[in-house]
Amino acid sequence: MKRPELERPPLLEARDLSRLYGPGKGCEAIDFTLHRGEVLGIVGESGSGKSTLLRVLSGLERPDTGQVVYHARHEPGLERTGDDDTIDLYAIGEARRRALLRMEWGLVHQNPRDGLRLEVSAGANIGERLMALGERHYGQLRAAGQDWMGRVELDPQRIDDAPRTFSGGMQQRLQIARILVTRPNLVFMDEPTGGLDVSVQARLLDMLRTLVRELGLSVVLVTHDLAVARLLAHRLMVMRRGRVVEAGLTDQILDDPQHAYTQLLVSSVLTP
Amino acid sequence: MNGYRNSTETGYNFAYLDEQTKRMIRRGLLKAVAIPGYQVPFGGREMPMPYGWGTGGMQLTASILGADDVLKVIDQGADDTTNAVSIRAFFERVAGVATTTATDEADVIQTRHRIPEAPLKRDQILVFQVPIPEPLRFIEPSEEETRLMHALEEYGVMHVKLYEDIARHGHIATTYAYPVKVDGRYVTDPSPIPKFDNPKLHMSEALMLFGAGREKRLYAIPPHTRVESLDFEDHPFEIQRWEEPCALCGSRDSFLDEVITDDVGGRMFVCSDTDFCQRRSSDNRQKRREEVA
Which one of A1, B5, B19, B54 is least enclosed by Cβ atoms within 10 Å? Predict the structure, then answer.
């Protein structure tokens, strides 16, 4: 008898990942599986190796040891390494890795200035990934730009304005539109709400949550803000000194922390 | 060995550069021809004039020039402007080669910013002077990164620039150094020729060589190579058009320069290619004489 598959298929796996700049600096022995449609939060204090892990996962930095394994959609352009559609991120060539990053993944930077082209208009920013994928119709690029500006709650009338004329929160939303326009399979976010004031943060989080649900995005979210993690993440990994000290469902970790460090982290959240 | 005779200026090797340098540049040129549109680095030499005046083009010309070749030099289409006159005189002195202003008589044509109007033939070589050989430079300042982008064919950003043009001006406002894709592979800067000349690059009979002296890069478009100007489906590539014909020769299909004739707003449009214009003018006179007779 054929049984229904209860567990969602895995999308991204980290297998014994290490990238150390020195003892305790970087990330060490990381193992996890991200399933399709799941939002995984990585929390921890500054210097705990969150961002290093994100760089390694998103193909920007080769790990010292371990593998990042991606289970691709049936994509004719990408060659497969195994029998199933498994891609070992650092075993494929740089050309294919960059193509993967461009076509199926997206990276939202903490500082929108790192993720945007400030010298070209908002519309060109949103259209860039589409153009990289071969879209050559100006009218359609523009329509997609206006559509996405609307979705991230920006005024579509401002499509020709330069990103530097936008506020910080608007720039961050523009960056998110620029990434999501190609419907990536997997999105990495590095402190997407960092540097924004609380009310703007709340709106951004609300928008992100809607988009994640609507598009069925799979997200790896790095944050030091437990409130952000609580709102967005389904599962949490708590990192300290480069290692994962605790992992589990978000509510479980935040309501009933087991590890001493997680308890400290949860108890140090300020409540007004 | 016949490259050594005829040199009118003693104390210089034929065509100024030493033979080893010419060989090095020729090796680079062979590679450039083998990989159309690919920028080949070369050991650029000091030339007796400043960067930006055509040192790259001159080194290429010096490397390919033979004693029997006839040289033509144009600057913005004209044979009689400072840059063209000086470079022509230079090669007359250090190589003793014959020079001409007639496009169809030249074996090697060094050019700055134009392709002659008269169709080029096989066996002719057009040498371009290039200021910035890297078409991706405007968006990516790192040379390492641009080389990687070329290697991986990451050319999406080229269209970002064109998109931005349309968004700001309503049409593609890039009028010179208009980016092209050579042989379906490398995006290439055709040097600051007006986009009017871009179609002449496509399936050209002549060999086109590009030399950038300051950046020390050379590249080539071999004869019969596909050259496509980048564009959008709904904003296709277009060349400049003028409402009036050339005031001197009456040509309606050549690239025209606007010339201010007085200080009360008088102006006229004339061909930028002086050889083409003079030829047509004298043909017209001939025709008129025949009609009268």
Answer: A1
The per-residue pLDDT for range B111-122, each reduced to its tens digit, is 999 999 999 999
Q: What is the pLDDT of residues B134-178, one digit of tens each?
A: 999 988 889 999 999 999 988 988 999 899 999 999 999 899 999
Looking at residue A176, its pLDDT comes to 92
Q: What does the DSSP assignment read for chain B?
A: -GGGTT--STTSBTTBS-HHHHHHHHHHHHHHHHSTTPPEE--PPP-SS-TTSSHHHHHHHHHH--TT-EEEEEETTBSSSHHHHHHHHHHHHHH--EE-S-GGG-SEEEEES---SSPP-TT-EEEEE-S---TTTTT---HHHHHHHHHTT--HHHHHHHHHHHHHHSS----BS--EEETTTEEE---S-BGGGHHHHTT-SSEEEEEETTTTEEEEE-TT--EEE--BTTB-------SS--TTT--SSS-EEEEE-SSSS-EEEEES-HHHHHHHHHHHHHHHHHHH-
Contacts of B107 (CB under 8 A, 6+ apart): B69, B70, B71, B123, B124, B125
Q: Is A159 within 8 Å of B167 when comparing Cβ atoms?
A: yes
Q: Does A249 touch chain B (CB under 8 A)?
A: no
Residues in B touching A94 (Cβ below 8 Å) = 148, 152
B96 part of the active site: no
Separation of alpha carbons B219 and B128, rounded Å: 10
ipTM of the complex model: 0.82
Active-site annotation holder among B28, B246, B265, B266:
B246
Q: Do A95 and B160 count as a contact with CB atoms less than 8 A apart?
A: no
Residues 6+ apart with CB under 8 A from A244: A30, A31, A32, A237, A238
Name the stretches of chain A with pLDDT < 50: 75-78, 80-83
> Are the Cβ atoms of B163 and A124 closer than 8 angstroms?
yes
Chain A residues with beta carbon closer than 8 angstroms to that of B235: 138
Contacts with B, A 2-61, CB within 8 Å: none
> Measured between CB atoms, which of A128, A139, A159 is closest to B156?
A128
Cβ pair B159:A131 closer than 8 A? yes
pLDDT digits (tens, 9 = 90+) for A194-243: 778 888 888 888 888 888 888 888 999 998 888 889 889 999 999 999 99
Active-site residue B271, yes or no? yes
Provide the pLDDT confidence category of residue B185 given band limits of 50, 70 and 90: very high
The answer to whether B266 is a known catalytic residue is no
Q: How far is A146 from chain B (nearest CA, A)?
A: 13
B277 is catalytic: yes
Residue tagged 């010292």 (tokens): A64
Mean pLDDT of chain B: 92
